[in-house]
Amino acid sequence: MRAWHILLVSTLVLAACSKSPEPGPEPIVVKRANTTVATPDYPDITSLSKLLESGDSSSATFVSDALSRAEQFSELNAFITLDSGGAVKKAAELDRMRASGEVLVPLHGIPLVIKDNIHVAGMQNTAGTPGLKGFVPTASNEVVNRLVAAGAIILGKTNLHELAFGITSDNAGFGAVKNPYDDSLIPGGSSGGTAVAISAGIVAAGLGTDTGGSVRIPPSLTGIVGFRPSMGRYPSEAVTPISKTRDTVGLLSRTVTDLIVLDDVIVPGATAVTAIAASEIRLGVPRAYFYQNIDAEAARVVEATLASLTAAGVQLIETDIPDIDELMANSAFPIAFYEVLRDLTAYLEEFDTGVSFGELTAAAASPDVKGVLGLVSGDGKTSEEVYAAAMSARQQLRKNFAQYFADQKLDAIIFPTTILPARPIEGSLESVELNGELVPTLPTYIHNTDPASSAALPGISLPVGLTASGLPVGMEIDGPEQSDRRLLAVARTLETIVGFSGRPPE
Q1: What gap in Å lies between CA 352 and CA 350, rounded to an integer?
Q2: What are phi and psi of 234, to 5 degrees?
Q3: 31: pLDDT strictly greater than 50
Q4: How far apart (Å, rounded) are the C-alpha atoms in residues 290 and 446?
Q5: Which DSSP letter does residue 116 get?
Q6: Catalytic site residue from 58, 59, 190, 453
Q7: pLDDT score of 15
Q8: N or C: more exposed end of the chain, with fewer CB within 10 A?
Q9: Does residue 77 contact residue 159 with C-beta atoms inside 8 Å?
């Protein structure tokens, strides 16, 4: 892996810094004839649905409040496109439907956001890169279709690391996305805009995509929840790709319960998520790979979380996964580098974008992304032989994980989502500080999330605490392939035990 890291890191350059935090918003008050209801500053789907069902609020109010909050937090740069007119119109339509007794379930009138590499019909899909400005798909991704059919309102398309090829969301073409906990810091990526829109309380939930950690790293750094499903669980066509054998649409939200609501919509007929007692949960703790060189403050939060889980009755089994270092080194980057050239080229042609791979590379604004695209299509192009060997190593990794889960009778493994909290935007594309040393940004942040992507596992990042300086720390649970509903049930129990209640500073 070291050689691939050197190739990748050699392309990374310094990013721009950002501004100091703005004060938080005052509670928005919705007035009714006989009722005054404060709309939640940090909403979740469940609470919004109850307000609608009781008649204490409306879809129009939710959209108006979300747009106001998006404007208030505009310097966080969460959005590329805000569909204000379309969202307001849709909310009015849904309110009329509700008044006539026609209710779509379970998302009727709930505003959501969509990462700007997932197609939404009639909205431009830039994928965060200048070469795709003005590209407007005529059809939506099927996950989007199912959410809209269940009553969701698409508020807009969110900012991201250019072409989703990075983890800082410092986008030179559309501006850096900024962390609500400290806007001089990265929010993680590549689904940084969606995470920030939720963390800042603009919306309750949204869609991202995940290739090596992009719906788990941003939640970890912004204090929310992120879910990467098993490969193939969600329809992932009509998405700007990096690596089709690793890419998936994923979910970001404020609570695990909301993840379950959304998963119910996306996968009709899925098995029920039943309550699991803490004492019934068995989690592996593979320290040799996932717990090395952790930031000291993050480590304090992580170990306190493990102690809390043990005290609540969760069974923690300290045992390691065979050969994970070597198999990851021989599979992850070679696969992504080979497939991005193949899959992105095919995508540009299939959807009639009018742009070639070479033209997209030439127009790329972020130096790190431009460098990688030039590398994979030029002297650093991955050979068929290397790709075949990488796929073989990946298959062995999947077997090792499956055997590990079976032998230890585990529901999941648990580990820090990232080994360090958010770092400054300035300079982060090249390197970040970890325990007194400068380390390469991308490999460091994806170190713990990338195995699930390579092994096709479902993974959920949960917020578990704050550092002494008030920055979120996340822990991830990864389960066996296709164990998504059981993993969601486990996550809900763990969320209750941990009881995270952090919010960005006002």
Answers
A1: 6
A2: -110, 140
A3: no
A4: 11
A5: T
A6: 190
A7: 33
A8: C
A9: yes
Taking the C-alpha atoms of residue 444 and residue 434, their distance in angstroms, rounded to an integer, is: 9
Helix (H), strand (E) at residue 81: strand 79-82
Torsion of CA 400, 404, 406, 412, to 10 degrees: -120
Pairing status of strand 153-158 against strand 79-82: antiparallel
Structure-token pair, residue 363: 């127009």
Look up 428 and say whether it is catalytic: no
C-alpha span between 154 and 113 (Å, rounded): 6
Cα separations (Å) of 267 from 250, 484, 485? 13, 11, 11
Instruction: Please give the biggest Cα pair distance in the chain.
Output: 71
CA distances for 283 relative to 3, 260, 410, angstroms: 33, 21, 6
Alpha carbon distance 204, 44 (integer Å): 5
Indicate whether 409 pLDDT > 60: yes
Query: 49, 59, 115, 178: which one is catalytic?
Result: 115
Are the C-beta atoms of 110 and 204 separated by less than 8 Å? yes
Q: Which residues contact 206 (CB under 8 A, 6 or more apart)?
A: 112, 113, 114, 115, 158, 194, 197, 198, 251, 252, 253
pTM (whole model) above 0.70: yes
* Spatial CB neighbours of 68, under 8 Å, sequence gap ≥ 6: 28
Letter for the amino acid at 270? A
In the block, which residue shows the tokens 């090792």? 400
Beta strands in 189-313 (DSSP E): 205-210, 225-228, 248-253, 282-284
**Are 166 and 366 spatial neighbours (Cβ–Cβ below 8 Å)?**
yes
**What is the spatial distance between Cα 337 and Cα 355, in angstroms, rounded to a whole number?**
20
Can you tell me the distance from the alpha carbon of 261 to that of 152, in angstroms, rounded to the nearest whole number? 12
Q: What is the C-alpha separation between 84 and 14, in angstroms, rounded?
A: 34
- Catalytic residue, chosen from 57, 59, 199, 214, is 214
**Tokens standing for 133?**
């400005």
In whole angstroms, give the CA distance from residue 22 to residue 9. 33
* Triad 438, 440, 442: Cα angle to 5°: 140
What's the distance, Cα to Cα, between the start and end of the chain in Å?
42
CB 432 within 8 A of CB 438: yes
Q: What local confidence, expressed as pLDDT, does residue 11 receive? A: 38
Q: Is the dihedral of CA 313, 318, 322, 323 positive or negative?
A: positive
Active site residue 58: no
Q: What backbone torsions phi and psi does residue 53 show, to the nearest 5 degrees?
A: -65, -35
For the chain, how many residues are written? Answer: 506
Contact between 185 and 19 (Cβ < 8 Å): no
pLDDT band at 380 (very low <50, low <70, confident <90, very high): confident
- Span 449-460, pLDDT tens digits: 999 999 999 999
* 115 is annotated as an active-site residue: yes
Burial class, 103, CB count within 10 angstroms (exposed 0-12 / middle 13-18 / buried 19+): middle
Between strands 315-317 and 282-284, the pairing is: parallel
What single-letter DSSP state applies at residue 352?
Answer: T
